[in-house]
Specification:
Chains A, B: This is GntR family transcriptional regulator. Chains A, B: GO terms for molecular function: DNA binding; DNA-binding transcription factor activity. Two copies of one chain form a homodimer. The first copy, chain A, has about 240 residues and is mainly α. Helices cover about 65% and strands about 5% of the residues of chain A. Chain A is globular, with a radius of gyration of 20 Å. The interface between A and B is large, with 37 and 37 residues. Chain A binds a DNA duplex (30 and 30 nucleotides) through helix 3.
Amino acid sequence: MAVDTGMKLAPLRYESAPLRNQIIAALRSAIEAGILKPGTRLIERDLCEQLNVSRTSLREALRELQALGVLSHTANRGLMVGTLTREDASNAYSIRSVLEALVARQFIDHAIDDEFAQLASLGLTLKKAYRSGSVEQILKAKRAFYDCLCSGARNNLAFDFINRLTLRTSQLRSTSLARKERQQQSVREIDAILAAIAARDAGAASDAAHAHVESAAASAFAAQDQVTEDEIAPPRRSANLTG
Amino acid sequence: MAVDTGMKLAPLRYESAPLRNQIIAALRSAIEAGILKPGTRLIERDLCEQLNVSRTSLREALRELQALGVLSHTANRGLMVGTLTREDASNAYSIRSVLEALVARQFIDHAIDDEFAQLASLGLTLKKAYRSGSVEQILKAKRAFYDCLCSGARNNLAFDFINRLTLRTSQLRSTSLARKERQQQSVREIDAILAAIAARDAGAASDAAHAHVESAAASAFAAQDQVTEDEIAPPRRSANLTG
DNA sequence: TTTTGTATGATTGTATGACATACAAAATGG
DNA sequence: CCATTTTGTATGTCATACAATCATACAAAA
């Protein structure tokens, strides 16, 4: 007979850390940080040396990143960091816009009181992060905010999709998030979303979510245009990742 | 010296056919056809034997399918065909709904006359496919229709996302598409979408797209409920793929 | 009878070496 | 200077090997 102490022990699951997941994380953050710029060719042998992993594991990681849309493949020439045309970026923001509007509506329909409170709290954290100006903190808080939003909306699939979109546009975001004006406006937009959700006004929440994403898009494009001149450079070899 | 006949020959560029792409296609169609049922464990060694490929290539294919969300992974137990909870399915349809509404609006904004005509033509083909009752033809026509729609909307990213969604819900679709009532209603809904687009009425097109997807969802759930009784079975070993 | 310890097999994770193929760039020859 | 050949580069694929972990069955002990 098993003992029943009444205690609930956490499952203590072995949080799978296959090597390829570390590789994926390393490449992702290198891309997001701009160490691997769009158009950079990824040579397997070089990456194996730099990351000190076998080709087998590296290739599996590359296949995943490829399927996620971060890397693009050309026949007999291998992989390169995906480039984002202006049209693609605009579409990514359009899709995020309708997705977030959907999730906002669903949140109002399905979330329980606890989740409303939690979302409000995470909204505060997010606004604080914006005011702090740290890109890293903003991204972390944003992720937590959307996680709560989608989870309250009972729509984890949307969370998945939103993450994929943000992954693809990560190059743009890192430049635009750093702008002071953008940060101030973001705070106002977050407030609008939170207020609409708190008021259980699905239409207003949807509109506010729309507005937030579209204003983010405008800011990202403005930021991009400022640096475009330098960026017409030819494809590069992969840079050093060990930094 | 190369001949120049004045003809424009299609690039015919070896559309790379790596073995893993064939593997992916084989597994995909096996899942869509129901040969590999949700919950089936995928044992690498067995699949290697059945497909007569090396583990290296197979695993790379599996990583891609995993990233696409078709397969789910549990630590130290490997992969299995992803199961779709009812909530997931509902969300997939919700997302498709807002995506298609978006694309319909964008199509009206951006498409040129040629594309309007082409979409109308593909709409006819699609309706004919519905009337023929062949699931295979319906799927093919639908894909062509959406391809044209997204391409006219200048939104290939949306096409990508829609395809991912349909991939995940493929299990449901194959059963629901086969129903006669559904086919008749689909024809009416397609007509509504085409009419709204032809009239350049973005609001109506968006509404019609919404309605189409949501009615498809309702039908899929109805079809699913009819077969649910048999499907509470335990996890299965992988079936024979060579058929 | 129940629990615990142990052995064994199954399965994935990772690494290595090898070979074929296709492309790119350099060298060669006119 | 152009065309052809050669060489180098990089990926695609395979076979093999070993480690780590889990599942199962079975024996030993309580």
